[in-house]
Design brief:
Elements (H helix, E strand, L loop, with lengths): L14 E4 L2 E4 L7 H6 L3 E3 L3 E4 L2 E2 L1
Antiparallel strand pairs: 1-2, 3-4, 4-5
Amino acid sequence: MIEDRIYLTRNMVKEVILEGKRRALPDLIIGAPTLETWRLELNLKEGIRRGSLII
């Protein structure tokens, strides 16, 4: 069994202005410790992987 702590908020910013451009933020942010705990790998081309499963 894997246990982890998560934080939920209703006050998440939906978009930011970065380098003068308005950019939307994701609905979910996963930190590095969570990726390590769940043995997930972030692949910038294919998404988040766990073995052959793409989340």
